[in-house]
Amino acid sequence: MNGQSAAAGTAGGFLETRTGRALASNWAACFLILMFAVFSLTSGSFLSVANFQNVIHLQTLPFLLAAGETFVIITGGIDLSVGFVTGLASVCAAKSIQVLLAAGMTATQSVALSLAGVLVLSALPGLVNGLVITKFRVPPFIATMGMWGIANGLALKISNGFPMTGLPDKLPEIGNGYLVYILPGQFVSFLSKPVGFANSRIRELLRLLPYSLPFILLVLAILAFALKRTRFGRHTYAIGGNVDAAVRSGISVDRHLVGVYVLSSLLAGMGGIFNVFQTGIGNYTTFNAQYEFFAIAAVVIGGASLAGGKGRIWSSAVGVLVLAFLENGLAISGVQPFYRYIAVGVLLVVAVVIDKIFPDLR
Amino acid sequence: MKKTIVAFLVVLMIAALAIPTFAQPIKVLFMPGVTDPFYFTMEKGIKAAAAKAGVDLTVAEYPKAWGPENQIPILQAMVAKDKYDLLLIAPTSADALKAPLKAIYDQGTEIITVDTFIGDGDYSKQSDYSFPLSYIGSDNQLGGKQMAEQLAKLVGEKGKVYCQATNPDASSVQDRVKGFTAGVSEFPNMMLVGVEWCLDVQQKAQEQTLAALQINKDIVGIFGLNVFSAQGATQAVVNAGLSGAVKMCLWDATLSNIDNLKKGNADLVLAQKPGEMGSLAIEWGVKYLKDKKNVKVPKKVIPGFEFFTRQNVNDQGMQQYIYQ
Fold first, then answer.
1. Does B54 map to a domain?
2. What pLDDT band is residue A229 in, cutting at 50, 70 and 90?
3. Does residue B250 sit in the same domain as residue B144?
4. Is residue B11 a part of any domain in this protein?
5. Element of type H or E holding B192
6. Average pLDDT across chain A, whole number
7. Looking at the partner chain, which of B200, B245, B259 has a beta carbon nearest the beta carbon of A199?
8. Structural element, H or E, at residue A192
9. Total domain count, chain B
10. Which of A49, A246, B2, B127 shows the smallest number of beta carbons within 10 Å?
11. Are B144 and B56 found together in one domain?
12. A293: CB partners within 8 A, 6+ apart
């Protein structure tokens, strides 16, 4: 009996119970709840609506990237290009808005046209990735790493290495807007602060439900549905589970894989567009950001296997939240940033070890 | 006749030896620190001065991230390919770059460090890092201190302030934090409640600042210590709905920081003079190489700062200090 099966055997009794299986297969969610409990005790500021909203709002981009990466990882692949595709989409959106504004279009027209164009264009890196992987049998790691460099270079070329400004002021207002504003005992206002609201009372203002929350819930729900309930989703699992069996059962594996990489790229592009709304400028992705690695880490923590065939959208979203709240909770508890990096690293290794010891958990 | 021919040949030989010295322009290599607007602006200053001085300029690949592990391989590849008379470099580590730069210097290349330095940046005293011709860059400690003083004015010299920093291993960053900490400590009613390091990632700066605002809900002022820290910190304050209530002092005059100043999301922007640092480095380097015996290059050249406020941000004279 090797170490892995011994460990599995030891835990086997408990795991065979319904509760045991539910807890083990949702260990990330359990860990998240445990973190909430611990950080609530270590810092009084952690457990607050404002903090949770801030964290979730800032995770909109990681949610999108992790969702795309979930599809890719279920097929047994990997997409390293998403972080820089996000930056490329962000600067393309900013540049095209600048150009259209200069051409005399209104702000609304410029933004609408530019965003539609960028969304369509952001499928291109995924299309190239998919074609290189399926037609030339280049391993996904290498193919998407190539696109990683190309997207980074293009973004720097378009932006000349500068954040791109001069976009309509309304963009960050929308990107950081809330559905409800409340000044206790004074007013409840929907969609915007009341006109003439005194800045001196801004610290008393409660803001509820950032626009980004319904947006990301909708996107994740659609993707979860597509993965669980549609033929596209079933084929994704089938390819990751056993590619030969998938071929024998008549699935057009190559075409499907191209579709999966296009989807991943599209979501990264959507992330870039969201970034423009959130920051009001076009940002190229800096090298240290490593969005792709955090997206992959979230997917793995969420229970997907890098070997393919396993993974769920909502679980990956939990993975994103685990990473985000771990960082946030440790920061609020006053832990030095360098220890926080260690904590994230340890958590990732734990996730992979759990997957190795209990490969049958879903 | 024979003597005339010999004399002619000797003159010809001397001319042949002399021609490369005069005909070949001085070769200069610029090695930036990292891919960011500050160094792109510096490159523009260097290029303009190089064109004016007629030197042959090569710009090395921009390292994708801050750190000697990213910069040294690019630098070594460049000097292995070609020989340069002058190297302008922003060292990404005060210690790790000492040995590689000494090796390049020993091969006959003069070195000027721009923006950052090796050792403690004092090349005037005898040490194992005193070989560069000069350090041309900001007095970051002074800048940090001045930012603390400006922030103190903005918050009425009282309340909690926070510093959003970036890479802890950069000499310039360390000095800004030191200066800011010292500056804040001069105001007894002000307290520095935290320094965080975003490693040049705007999103991280945003998350860290939001966490800081969560821990200390009564923070009244924030110092954003470089391009990415400043943008992320400002964004966090906007996200938290605290624009105007939290005073923001931002380091580096990128268009985005200036935009935030105009929109009321920031209160003060410090402009370094990267273009001037670049052009001064070329001017001093070329002057020295043309007349090594008589030209004495100052060991430290500090171009100084400019401060953008909402009152002067549209002044014609200030526009030259925006990084673009």
1. yes
2. very high
3. yes
4. no
5. strand B190-197
6. 89
7. B245
8. none
9. 2
10. B2
11. no
12. A83
Instruction: Mark yes or no for CB contact B201/A286 under 8 Å.
Output: yes
Which pLDDT band holds residue B7 (cuts at 50, 70, 90)? low
Report CA torsion sign: B64, B70, B75, B76: negative
**Same-domain check for residues B266 and B284:** no
Contacts of A16 (CB under 8 A, 6+ apart): none
Which residue, among A46, A95, A162, would best test binding to B if mutated, counting the most B CBs under 10 Å from its CB?
A162
Q: How far is B123 from chain A (nearest CA, A)?
A: 32
Distances (CA, A) of A253 to A31, A47, A122, A126: 36, 46, 22, 16
How far is B266 from B204, CA to CA, in rounded Å?
A: 19
Residues B84, B182, single domain; the answer is no
Please check whether residue B290 is in contact with residue B125, taking contact to mean a CB–CB distance below 8 angstroms: no
Q: Kindly determine whether residue B324 and residue A172, on different chains, have CB atoms separated by under 8 Å.
A: no
pLDDT band for position B273 (cuts 50, 70, 90) = very high
Percent of chain A at pLDDT exceeding 70: 94
User: B56-59 and B86-89: which strand pairing?
Assistant: unpaired
Q: What is the pLDDT of residue A344?
A: 79
Interface test with B, best of A171, A279, A344 (most B CBs within 10 A): A279
pLDDT higher than threshold 70 for residue B17: no
Q: Tens digit of pLDDT for each residue in A140-183?
A: 999 999 999 999 999 999 988 888 888 998 998 899 889 998 88
- Give A23-79 as a DSSP string: HHHTHHHHHHHHHHHHHHHH-TTTS-HHHHHHHHHHTHHHHHHHHHHHHHHHTT---
Question: Which residues of chain B are within 8 Å of residue A202 when distances are taken between CB atoms?
Answer: 241-245
End-to-end CA distance of chain A: 24
Residues of A contacting chain B (CB within 8 angstroms): 43, 45-46, 48, 50-51, 54-55, 57-58, 61, 152, 156, 160-163, 165-166, 169, 172, 176, 199-200, 202-203, 205, 207, 278-281, 283, 286-289, 324, 327-328, 331-332, 334, 337
Question: Is B288 domain-assigned?
Answer: yes
Please indicate, yes or no, if residue B222 is contained in any of the structural domains. Answer: yes
Q: What pLDDT, on a 0 to 100 scale, did the predictor assign at position A133?
A: 96
Query: A16-49 pLDDT, tens per residue?
Result: 777 777 777 788 898 899 989 999 998 888 888 9
Residue with tokens 């040049």: B200
Residue B65 pLDDT grade (very low, low, confident, very high; cuts 50, 70, 90): confident
When pLDDT is averaged across residues B218-242 and rounded to a whole number, the result is: 92
Rounded to the nearest integer, the mean pLDDT of chain B is 91
**B158 and B176 belong to one structural domain:** yes
Domain residues for the domain of B145 are: 140-271
A189 vs A66: CA distance, rounded Å = 34
CB-based burial of residue A102 (10 Å sphere; 0-12 exposed, 13-18 middle, 19+ buried)? exposed
Indicate if B30 and B122 belong to the same structural domain. Answer: yes
Q: Are residues B212 and B127 in the same domain?
A: no
The amino acid present at B138, given as its one-letter code, is S
pTM given for the model: 0.83
A332/B323 touch (CB, cutoff 8 Å), yes or no: no
Q: How many CA atoms lie within 13 Å of B287's alpha carbon, on the beta-carbon side? A: 15
Instruction: Give start and end residues of each alpha helix (H) in B37-86.
Output: 37-53, 68-81
Residues B40 and B132 reside in one and the same domain: yes
A162, B323: Cβ pair inside 8 Å? yes
